[in-house]
Amino acid sequence: MTTTLYLVRHAQSLPLMHQPEPDWALSPAGEAQATGLVPALAPLGITRIYTSPYRRCRDTLVPFADACGLEIAVHEGLRERRIAGQWVPDFREVWRRSWEDFSFALDGGECSWTCRARIAAAVDELVHRHPGETLALGSHGNALALFLHFVEPAFGVHDASAIRTPEILKVTHSDGRYHWRRDFHAGAGFEVLATDFRLTPGIVA
């Protein structure tokens, strides 16, 4: 029996220094991307949607859920890796170090090993809860990259940096193993829609 997972990275967000990260909304471009995801996701046979509790993940999948009459369930294990207890202005340096040393963590933050174990456990739980179904799992770039590292240990920082906003990645589970379907493509329309995550607006005071 094969369970199919479509891992959906959220659309472009709008970081605000004065706002807790879980509350960050989508940017205007991200809102348009969320709407544009509907025709990309609709043909995939998705029967259930789970997302991170962070607002930007839920808002990314609301247009698709509404169009297809599906409910969105929140799973805490799909949340983003916690970088630190406060805003970190030099995230790119933290990103680099986190891939060089999976045990590296700032005060109040998670190391890569911890986040990888958490999201892998969350996905395992959902796969065993819904065997043979097709699920959309809304999460974040860092967390999804670490899950793909769990699936394929050769997955590294260059692969992680190629995950766009939004992104749709296909993973299947059968015979107790996960398989990342690298040949999956969401279509030409989606290729126009997705943007490099580095284009996310900077701090908006």
Automatic annotation (TrEMBL):
<dbReference type="InterPro" id="IPR013078">
    <property type="entry name" value="His_Pase_superF_clade-1"/>
</dbReference>
<dbReference type="InterPro" id="IPR029033">
    <property type="entry name" value="His_PPase_superfam"/>
</dbReference>
<protein>
    <submittedName>
        <fullName>Phosphoglycerate mutase</fullName>
    </submittedName>
</protein>
<dbReference type="InterPro" id="IPR050275">
    <property type="entry name" value="PGM_Phosphatase"/>
</dbReference>
<dbReference type="Pfam" id="PF00300">
    <property type="entry name" value="His_Phos_1"/>
</dbReference>
<dbReference type="GO" id="GO:0016791">
    <property type="term" value="F:phosphatase activity"/>
</dbReference>
<dbReference type="GO" id="GO:0005737">
    <property type="term" value="C:cytoplasm"/>
</dbReference>
